[in-house]
Amino acid sequence: MLTAQTKYALRALIHLQRANPEGYLRVEEVAEHTDLPAPFLSKILKTLTKEGVVESRRGKNGGVRLASGRKAASLYEVCQAMQDPLVREECLLLKKACDAKAPCPFHGRWDATKQKFLRFLKATTLSSSSLGD
Questions:
Q1: Is there a contact between 62 and 24 (Cβ–Cβ < 8 Å)?
Q2: Of 118, 42, 41, which is closest to residue 75 (Cα–Cα)?
Q3: Of 36, 72, 75, 102, which one is least surrounded by beta carbons within 10 A?
């Protein structure tokens, strides 16, 4: 259901949370521990940095870490940052938004399910306690 890009982002963020939530980790180290391709992970982390989910620092002791001074990111925030189709307003069938005023054939049944799913994504954070650690 989630795109590969979103899944990679979540894997990297979970590793950052568990490995050293306060310190910086090199992208290569995160890639190695999460079994992700470093070049693709680097692009993902750049997007997450731009969105304020992680912060990066250059130099000898540099790398990436979860953004300090902010509550744990929700799965919804990560999906939004990665522009995952699951959180877009796009229709399940059509390549445009649909709503009660201009519904697609699935809108009535899908909308209630999607709203439950979005509530789940918003309520679930990347903190270790909410991920069943």
A1: yes
A2: 118
A3: 102
Which pair of tokens denotes residue 100? Answer: 């009660």
CA distance 41 to 11: 10
- For the segment 6-30, the average pLDDT, to the nearest whole number, is 88
Q: Where are the domains of the chain?
A: 4-131
Say which CATH architecture domain 4-131 belongs to.
Orthogonal Bundle (1.10)
Q: Could you write out the three-class secondary structure of 67-115?
A: CCCCCCCEHHHHHHHCCCHHHCCECCCCCCECCCCCCCCCHHHHHHHHH
Token pair of 47 as six digits = 């997007």
Rounded CA-CA distance 103/24 in Å is 47
Model's pTM, two decimal places? 0.82
Are the beta carbons of 64 and 56 closer than 8 angstroms?
Answer: yes
* Residue of 79, 51, 83 lying closest to 66 (CA atoms): 51
Distance CA 102, CA 116 (A): 21
pLDDT level of residue 19 (50, 70, 90 thresholds): confident
